[in-house]
């Protein structure tokens, strides 16, 4: 039966949910306080990471933790004032990231990841977005041979267990492949299956255009006005009042705070990150400087440095110290030029303490659905998550088992 649905949040998760519902003939409104793809889904590194078969968790390596504690390097930082309040949730995150629970989560996570190229591919084709996509993978470069050796073993395991493909490039090969490299490096690991996007926000915009072509509406409004009305939901927008039988909360890192007012306590950790674009030379393929702890991606606006994680409150003022450190390291490595924008962008990865996103029906509110918590791989997983939630909303069989993601696990 065809339904009226309002999807709140026009990042990659919400936009893809809206598209999947519209493709199934439902009447869909996508509502956001900004236009589609202007927040986390705009500012990321743009990698559709087919190789991310195991979720990123809280580091277990004492060397990394000690460096983070003393705020050394560009990889991890934190706001001292926020930390005491975050200790209980970080302790759960750390505990769930230990090898045994992590291995269990990886099983279900890899089943989502294995569909990322097919699901993005279908939407890219339908939305005519091929001009934004490169299908040549991306690289990890290593300054230290021992880091390369360790990660090579992990890559071999991924190839064996999950069938993802990679190649190793030695110091001379990578120097020839990436002429912008100015320092000798130990080597590189090229993940071959990933796709990369030169403007992630624009890709979300194309998916929103696809929604409009299939009868969906994109409107401006605020979730603050969403309320239950009879058997459905009502929200105010610039196009007037919207009444819908079903509503989907896909507000990325803002989802948990919003859900609190409905009585749900979702343990979401916003892991903040920054980016800035640079003119001048840069890598041809998106490249992680593994020992440096940041990434550089070629984008339409220039080379985009994206930083590692910063622990702090979602809306606390920006403290882009990691970006300053990464910028110095990236200038030495690639010879990047000047900053393109005066103020760095800031966003936050919506990470759940159990390393699993929240996808499914709200336990105590009929007609309300959740789709958030996609953490470090939300841009990769948006189309997969959108399809899964749309299929659950239709009540038929789903292409992936949704049980691990049930919102009720936190209720
Ligand atoms: C530095 C960095 C690099 C990353 N790199 C990658 C990568 O290479 N590959 C990858 O797969 N993932 C990457 N990620 C993660 C990825 O970007 C996120 O997981 C993903 O974008 C989350 O999408 P989303 O739709 O859930 O959230 P968002 O894109 O944040 O969308 C949420 C939407 O909700 C809206 N909203 C919030 N509050 C309200 C309100 N009150 N009313 C109405 N609307 C509201 C916002 O305006 C926003 O548009 C990266 C993240 C960061 C920070």
UniProtKB/TrEMBL annotation:
GO terms for cellular component: cytoplasm. The keyword Cytoplasm does not apply. One of its GO terms (molecular function) is oxidoreductase activity. Residues 5-392 form the FAD dependent oxidoreductase domain. It comes from the Bacteria. InterPro entries: FAD-dep_OxRdtase, FAD/NAD-bd_sf. Keywords: Oxidoreductase. The keyword DNA-binding does not apply. PANTHER family: GLYCINE OXIDASE, SARCOSINE DEHYDROGENASE-RELATED. This is FAD-binding oxidoreductase. It comes from Caenimonas aquaedulcis. The lineage of its organism: Bacteria, Pseudomonadati, Pseudomonadota, Betaproteobacteria, Burkholderiales.
């Amino acid at each position: 039966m065809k339904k009226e649905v309002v999807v709140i949040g026009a990042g990659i998760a919400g936009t893809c949910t809206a598209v999947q519902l519209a493709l199934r003939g439902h009447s869909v409104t996508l509502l956001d306080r900004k236009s589609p793809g202007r927040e986390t889904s705009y500012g990321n590194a743009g990698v559709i990471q087919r190789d991310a078969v195991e979720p990123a968790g809280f580091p277990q390596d004492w060397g990394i933790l000690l460096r983070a504690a003393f705020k050394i390097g560009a990889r991890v930082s934190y706001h001292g004032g926020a930390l005491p309040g975050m200790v209980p949730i970080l302790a759960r995150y750390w505990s769930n990231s230990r090898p045994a629970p992590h291995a269990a989560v990886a099983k279900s996570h890899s089943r989502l990841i294995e569909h990322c190229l097919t699901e993005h591919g279908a939407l890219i084709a339908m939305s005519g977005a091929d001009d934004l996509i490169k299908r040549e993978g991306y690289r990890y470069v290593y300054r230290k041979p021992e880091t390369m050796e360790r990660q090579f073993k992990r890559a071999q395991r991924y190839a064996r267990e999950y069938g993802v493909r990679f190649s190793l490039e030695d110091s001379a090969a990578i120097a020839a492949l990436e002429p912008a490299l100015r320092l000798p490096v130990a080597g590189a690991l090229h993940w071959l299956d990933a796709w990369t996007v030169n403007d992630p926000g624009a890709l979300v915009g194309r998916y929103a255009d696809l929604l409009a072509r299939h009868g969906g509406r994109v409107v401006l409004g605020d979730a603050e006005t969403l309320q239950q009305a009879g058997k459905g939901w009502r929200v105010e927008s610039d196009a007037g009042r919207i009444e819908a039988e079903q509503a989907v909360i896909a507000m990325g890192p803002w989802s948990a705070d919003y859900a609190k007012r409905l009585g749900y306590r979702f343990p979401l950790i916003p892991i903040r990150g920054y980016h800035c674009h640079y003119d001048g030379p840069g890598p041809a393929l998106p490249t992680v400087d593994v020992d440096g702890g940041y990434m550089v991606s070629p984008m339409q606006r220039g080379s985009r440095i994206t930083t590692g994680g910063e622990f702090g409150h979602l809306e606390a003022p920006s403290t882009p110290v990691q970006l300053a450190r990464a910028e110095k390291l990236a200038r030495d490595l690639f010879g990047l030029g000047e900053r393109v924008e005066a103020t760095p962008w800031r966003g936050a990865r919506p990470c759940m303490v159990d390393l699993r996103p929240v996808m499914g029906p709200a336990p105590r509110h009929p007609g309300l659905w959740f789709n958030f918590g996609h953490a470090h791989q939300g841009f990769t997983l948006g189309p997969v998550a959108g399809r899964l939630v749309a299929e659950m909303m239709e009540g038929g069989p789903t292409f992936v088992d949704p049980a691990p993601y049930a919102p009720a696990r936190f209720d």
